[in-house]
Amino acid sequence: MFDLSRLKSKQFIVIGRAGMDLYADPPGTRTEDATQFFTCVGGSSANICVAIQKHGGQTALVTCVSDDSIGRFCINQLNHYGVDTRYVRAQDGEYRNSLAVVESRIEDHQSVIYRNGAADFQMNVDDINKVDFSPYCSLITTGTVLAAEPSRSATFHAFEQARETGLGLIFDIDYRPYSWASAEEAAKVYSKAGALCDVIIGNDEEFGFMAGDYNQGLAKARELAQTTATVVIYKMGEKGAITITPENEFQTGIYPVQALKPTGAGDSFMGGFIASVANGYSLKDSVLRGSACASIVVSKVGCAPAMPTSSELDEFLVTNKHKLVS
User: Fold this and answer.
1) Do residues 178 and 50 touch, judged by C-beta distance below 8 A?
2) Which of 79, 198, 235, 253 could bridge to 2 as Cys pair (CB 3.0-4.6 Å)?
3) Is 47 exposed, middle or buried (0-12, 13-18, 19+ CB in 10 A)?
4) In a 3-state reduction of DSSP, which class is residue 139?
5) Per residue in 177-205, pLDDT tens?
6) Per the confidence metrics, is the pTM higher than 0.85?
């Protein structure tokens, strides 16, 4: 079992996409009515990097971006937040960056994501072989990188290289059906990845998907904790989360806020949770802090710019109460 105390080095290597997010502006505007947009870096792995950076951790991202102005925008934004971009490769040809057009509204919310010919799926084994894994304590990835080749094989190769170097493997299931050729293929690949990882985070639908039956999702999470994983976090939306270890499990709730949008919560949870463990908080306190980070992000515009710093999180926790919903 992986020793979570090793995260205290606060050095993380992250695999996955960085993209551009466009938010219809001002908040509340429907995309079809918009005449201006707020832009920021997006993509689940990039967002996780930013979240950890804001809590005092250090991250390096491994991915491909398009060899054009949008790709350079993503790199510039990552550099702005202090993310190490030495392993971000510009992919030439007709491959393009992930692009999300999003609304800062809850009612009839619309998010349109463009992933055709995605540059990040071109990350390959050679990209992984250029990575020096030795400075890092853990490798973090999200399930999106597994949806297509050569990114899928490169990621499993990274798992092997990281494990040989003694790193922990942290996995956010992050199932996006539109990225996969079929649900059957996705379930098979996710199950393979889940069996290799030390920390696994996902929602009830994602674990149910891995199990092949929504009603068996919690059983699947418990099985992973009893066989291969050190920590499994089974998220249940407004009902909070169940955190499972080989020894025990506990349930935590949420921090109710006036949400501005539904996006970004998962990335913020992951970043806040991992950073809190790295900063010496207990497992339960780290889950609660991750939950608070998720609440903060959905109450603000954007994902990366909305990620709280440690001081902003502490201030939020003073004035907001944790609520357990049965």
Assistant:
1) no
2) 198
3) buried
4) strand
5) 888 888 899 989 999 999 999 999 999 99
6) yes
Question: Which two tokens mark 157?
Answer: 């190769």
Question: Looking at residue 325, what is its pLDDT?
Answer: 65
R_g (Cα) of the chain, nearest Å:
18
Q: At 65, give phi and psi (nearest 5°).
A: -125, 160
Task: For the chain, give every domain's residue range.
Answer: 4-319
Q: What is the CATH number of domain 4-319?
A: 3.40.1190.20
Distances (CA, A) of 164 to 156, 160, 196: 12, 6, 13
Q: What is the mean pLDDT of residues 48-73?
A: 98
Query: What counts of helices (H) and strands (E) characterise the chain?
Result: 10, 13
Q: Which two tokens stand for residue 21?
A: 């997010």
- Going by C-beta distance under 8 Å and a sequence separation of 6 or more, which residues neighbour residue 19? 41, 42, 43, 46, 74, 97, 98, 99, 100, 120
| Residue 125 Cα distances to 152, 160, 303, 325, angstroms | 9, 11, 29, 45
